[in-house]
Design goal:
There is one protein chain. This protein is α/β, with parallel strands linked by helices. It has two domains: about 200 residues, 3-Layer(aba) Sandwich (Peroxisomal Thiolase, Chain A, domain 1); about 140 residues, Thiolase/Chalcone synthase (Peroxisomal Thiolase, Chain A, domain 1, 3-Layer(aba) Sandwich). The protein is built from ten helices and twelve strands. Strands 8-12-11-9-10 form a five-stranded mixed β-sheet. A four-stranded mixed β-sheet has the order 4-3-5-7, with helices on both faces. A hairpin with a 2-residue loop joins strand 1 and strand 2. Helix 1 packs parallel to helix 4, helix 5 crosses helix 10 and helix 7 packs across helix 8. The longest helix has 15 residues.
């Protein structure tokens, strides 16, 4: 979390920034921070990814990402320059604001030839990407998928949340009585997803995508249903698809933005599902990452994955992501002991 003072006029905010230099993108069409974040993620597990890709026909590998900002920040800078000097910058390409740009970039970077698309449902985008990718595998369109989410630093989004009065004055405090709003962030997380009958046993702990629940309560354009009925429906749907009862769940990664409205409705939903809250680990990790918007679902599913694969959580994990307009999603992950 770093302080930023130049992105919102007259305001300093805390922002979850990916540190260090990001790898360059050698294409004007794709040169934007979100794609550099994707490349950064790919480089971190390139050797494992190459093995994964070699196991499948390239036409049978899908890419499904969640994103909301694409290249809007770069486009805004180019438009500002255009308005100032009267000529369109040579670096500007209108494709940078197309929602499919990130999936197209990753498809070309990895050389896969299956379906590739982006899900964009605001803050539930990359959680819902898991559902979309899973359906491709279930209906036989693909044998494997790379699924996840990405969103980079974006002044347009920052100023939008500022206009809504949703930004915290300092560090966000999910569930605290005096919570006053969100911290924003950027992020990227990628997963490999395979059909159950095609997974190679490698020993150790494998984390299985057991279910994804989706709901659309459409209560309000920006405010959640104060009773959390849409959030509850998404969580129950994920548990039902995964064959889980409340006692099977050990951990819930809350959407937990730190706003008064979100946290109140989400805990109402959690309390209705789980009668014994003392037996459940519940947390919001957004104070560590900021709210990564379209990437939030994948980033927080990755935190669940880390807990489960390391054995820190003994049981199933749920990751909640709720978006403007009542677009809700919950991802259910289950650890499995794999023996060779």
């Amino acid at each position: 979390m770093v302080p930023l003072s130049a992105d919102i006029p007259g305001r300093t905010i805390l922002f979850g920034m990916v540190p260090g230099e990001l790898p360059p993108v050698d294409s004007r069409e794709f040169d934007m921070r979100s794609n550099r974040l994707l490349l950064h993620a790919v480089e971190q597990f390139r050797s494992e990814l190459d093995v994964f890709l070699s196991r499948y026909d390239s036409t049978r590998i899908a890419i499904v990402l969640g994103a909301s900002n694409t290249g809007i920040d770069e486009a805004q800078r180019h438009v500002d320059h255009w308005l100032d000097v009267g000529t369109k910058p040579a670096e500007m390409d209108f494709s940078m604001i197309e929602l499919g740009t990130q999936a197209d970039f990753l498809k070309k970077t990895l050389g896969v030839k299956g379906p590739a698309f982006t899900v964009s449902t605001a803050c539930s985008s990359s959680a819902k990407a898991f559902a979309s990718a899973r359906r491709l595998l279930e209906v036989g369109v693909a044998d494997a998928a790379i699924v996840g989410g990405v969103d980079g630093r974006c002044r347009f989004a920052m100023n939008g949340f500022h206009a809504l009065g949703a930004l915290a004055q300092g560090a966000c405090r999910p569930l605290a009585p005096d919570r006053d709003g969100i911290n924003l962030g950027e992020g990227v997380a990628l997963f490999t997803l395979e059909r159950e009958d095609m997974v190679e046993a490698k020993g150790g702990v494998r984390v299985r995508l057991a279910g994804v629940g989706e709901s659309s309560d459409a209560y309000h354009a920006t405010a959640p249903d104060p009773e959390g009925r849409g959030a509850e429906a998404a969580m129950r749907a994920a548990m039902d698809e995964a064959g889980l009862v409340p006692e099977d769940v050990a951990y819930v990664n809350l959407h937990g933005t730190g706003t008064q409205a979100n946290d109140a409705m989400e805990m109402k939903a959690v309390a209705r599902i789980f009668q014994n809250l003392n037996a459940l680990r519940i947390e919001s990790t957004k104070p560590m990452t900021g709210h990564c918007l379209g990437a939030a679902g994948a980033v927080e599913a990755a935190i669940c994955w880390l807990y489960l694969s390391s054995g820190d959580i003994a049981g199933a994990a749920l990751s909640n992501s709720f978006a403007f307009g009542g677009s809700n999603a919950c991802v259910a992950l289950v650890p499995e002991e794999v023996r060779q």
